[in-house]
Amino acid sequence: MVLKQIIRYVIYFFIVLLILENIQKGIINGYFIIFLILLILMLPVCRFPYQKYKERKMLKQVAKAGIHEIDKMDGHQFEMYLKALFKELGYKSDVTKGTRDFGADLIMKNDKKKVVIQAKRYGYNNKVSIGAVQEIYSAMPYYKADQAIVITNSYYTTAAEELAKACKVRLLDRKTLIHFINKVNPSVEAKTVRQTVEPEQRKCPTCEGTLAQRISNAGNTFMGCSNFPRCQHTENVAK
Fold first, then answer.
1. Are residues 79 and 164 in the same domain?
2. Domain ranges, residue 58
């Protein structure tokens, strides 16, 4: 942002120099000077409609990608959705067995290469840490993969981004995931996956009951214990 402002002021400076130089040479008249001054003053105003256009375009991309449906998925549903995405690209993919996945949630292969993926379905206010990069990077030699990718609906910490760059691990954050989905233009929508794929069953950390996806009176999705009302443990699905 600061760099853009500096560039803008430099451009203004050279325009003023050009005007003064041409005044001395008698090339331009007063009306043209007034026109240039008005043009300079109008530049910030002209940027406003363009910014609004970019905002509308981004909102359309978000809606098309179904990112808010992804926010409501659990980890298993997110993996299934990514599997469907990469199938559209010609990959054959399998979800690894959770207890022995060696850092990879998906292993995908086409005629040219094998790719390992770690899927991180987070609340978009929570950043993915460096551990995800370390795990997927260590999974590459085990699965003899050619590429490692971490995909999240959130963002990454600075440390995770720096390590990924050094290790050549590809990171897809919330913004790049939206662009990726729109580029693939999958036949299966995120909403369809969320509604048809059952969330992975997990034990309640409070009473060892089963956590199940539920809808509150306010319409929010959450994970609730099967032993309710005796156990009132809940977990947010979409943050």
1. yes
2. 2-65
Question: DSSP characters for 33-78?
Answer: HHHHHHHHHHHHHHHHHHHHHHHHHHHHHHHHHTHHHHHT--HHHH
Strand partners, 107: 94, 116
pLDDT tens figures, 67-107: 888 888 888 899 999 999 999 999 998 666 554 568 899 99
Determine the Cα–Cα distance for residues 109 and 114; give it in Å rounded to an integer: 4
User: pLDDT tens for residues 225-234?
Assistant: 888 889 988 8
Closest CA to 126 of 159, 156, 105: 156
In sign, the C-alpha dihedral spanning 182, 183, 188, 190 is negative
Same domain, 74 and 136: yes
User: What is the spatial distance between Cα 19 and Cα 213, in angstroms, rounded to a whole number?
Assistant: 68
* pLDDT tens per residue, range 170-207: 999 999 999 999 888 888 888 888 888 877 777 888 88
Number of domain units in the chain: 3
Task: Tell me the CATH number at 87.
Answer: 3.40.1350.10
Q: Do 104 and 189 sit in the same domain of this protein?
A: yes
